[in-house]
Structures are given as structure tokens and as C-alpha cells.
Amino acid sequence: MAVRTSGQLRVFLFSATPRSKDLIVAGLPSEARLRRMGDAGGFTAGETINATGDGHALRLDGHEIAALDAEVDAP
Q1: What is the pTM of this model?
Q2: 39-73 burial string, b = 16+ CB within 10 Å, else e?
């Protein structure tokens, strides 16, 4: 699921299996911030990840919830 507001795009990610999964998220600006859902229920401050040729490569742990935040042109 993705949500876009003025100048910001957030893509929510969820691993529906108990196993870790490697993902590539394509179609975002070259720089995005990966935020993982913490034990207290809020998202972490996150880490900046840069896209490679295929997109943003990341790994989700089993049943993990995360979000990718990117700045986009305002509509």
C-alpha cells in the first residue's frame, strides 16, 4: 500500500510469512528512508537506502512491517 501527500510518498511493506524475504521495490526516487516497525508500535527513525539498477533492495524479517519514505514532486 502507498500513501502520497504533498511532496512525500510512503510505501508500506509487510512480510506475510514467518521467513525473512529479500525484496526489490522499484519506481521510487533514488534515495528513500527505510523505517521498521518497532516493538512499541511506532516506526524507527530509519536508515537511508539508495536504489541500484533494479530499485531499492532490502530484507524483511518474518511478519515484519516497514515503510519506505521518499520525497516526490508535489502534485
Answers
A1: 0.85
A2: eeeebeeeeebebeeeebebebeeeebbbbbbeee
